[in-house]
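Re: weekly structure request thread

Next one in the queue (129 aa):
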Amino acid sequence: MQLERSDWSSRNRKLSHVGFGVVLGEDRKKFKTRSGDTVKLKDLLDEGLQRAEKKIRDKEEIKKEKGGSGLLTDDEIVACRDAVTYGCIKFADLSCTRTNDYVFSFDKMLDDKGKTAVYLLYALTRISR
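Done, posted below.
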């Protein structure tokens, strides 16, 4: 094995295989890394940022139409968007059992209801007030 001949493997280190489940598309078919049918991290982050910002701006517009106070500035929207996006992606990845297959879904990842990062961030905000 090549790894055993490299500097990564020495007498002081124990190498172990760590198994993972399969990432599935919403059609429940495997993402195929060799054919390039996967979502690149950059694309995942960009899509998440766009969707989160749109959702935040839509909610701000609704508040504005109702004459609500406490509207966010553009800087606050960007900060909120970043926290929500990165939190959602991390939570979605870490909330799955490593050895189980899971279905990749942008909509589920960025959902603000149920067992998601958005819900946890909302609950934290409510508790800390």
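The chain has a mean pLDDT of 82. Residues 41-65 form the longest helix (25 residues).
Next request, please.
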